[in-house]
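Section 3.1: Structural characterization of target chains.
Under the original work plan, the team committed to producing a structural model for every single-chain target entering the pipeline before any wet-lab resources were allocated. The record below documents one such target. The sequence was received from the expression subgroup and is listed exactly as submitted; it comprises 372 residues.
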Amino acid sequence: MRSWSIPVGRIFGVELRIHLTFLFLLLFVWFTESASQTPPNAGRGLILVAIVFGSVVLHELGHALVSRRAGIPAKAIILLPIGGVTLLDETRQPAQSPQAWKRDIRIALAGPLVNLLIAFVAGIIVFGALPEAHLLQKPYVISSNLPRSLVWANLLLAAFNLLPAYPLDGGRVLRALISRRLDSVTATRRAVSIGQVFAMVFMLAGFVWNVWFTMIGVFLFMAAQLEERSVVFQSVLETVRLEDVMLTDFATLSPADTLEDALEKAVHSLQDDFPVIRGSDMVGVISKQKILEALRVEGNGYVQAVMNRVFEIAQKKESLASAFRKLTARNLSIIPVVEEERLVGIVTLQNLMHSMALLAESRKLRKEALNP
């Protein structure tokens, strides 16, 4: 989802991104609403787009702020046509506990509660100050009546997200309740199955009433599939140990090596990243790209001067998921694997992604063998 989204800023330290499909939705709303006015009024259509956009952003901020209080800070908010997705920082998630389902419910309900609060406050103001807005009159969301649209856009957004259709907020509440009795993967699959039923209902409704229902159903179905695959794959990564995938035949560099000597070694290696070893101690890491950049800018020097002295280490009994979290948390490309303070292997982002792809393929082959 991140690769199909563009950053637009940060709110309370959380990166805000707009998925391209959500951008098309906003453009469609603006165009249709502007053209429906007599005479055409692009300004009102633009304000309606801002109302929808702002309501979704505040909805997701509700999730982000509550998750932060629960000890799981949000990394980014991605806005989608069916709402938004708050990406949590998995590297700082607290250990699972029997009460984790309560935390998940609080986080899920935070978004709809924000929209209901906005609708309630706006409704009181509009009802008292602008009785001519006719809050109960249809159509509820239209650019020619922006005060009424503000109230109903938030009411409809809250109501839609409370449907027990995973990955909507109501579906996340349902999954949390199911996880009281079952493991997270099984609970997710149960919630996804229910969510896909809702998606099919929306798609069928689109053929009868409005094509918008079909679009919502398609996005809901796809989002549920992606969430399920993510949870299942994460569970697989948790079961694989680094000793099963780490590189044990690897090249090392010395801090006393010149950059030209280091490049010569790198040319004859398939590695892109190298541990820097002094005696039996690891003192840094350096990449092939860093060696080339230093040679171009500063000329020949020593590895010690340009190596990165900040790095993570991992035990060989750690999970593949743990290594991936360490790599992505600090934007690293290599993790040394140690046993009793002795370097026994390395895991690079390159070989980690390769291992993850092989794991996915092996699961697919096993599944096909069990279900010919």
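The longest strand covers residues 5-11.
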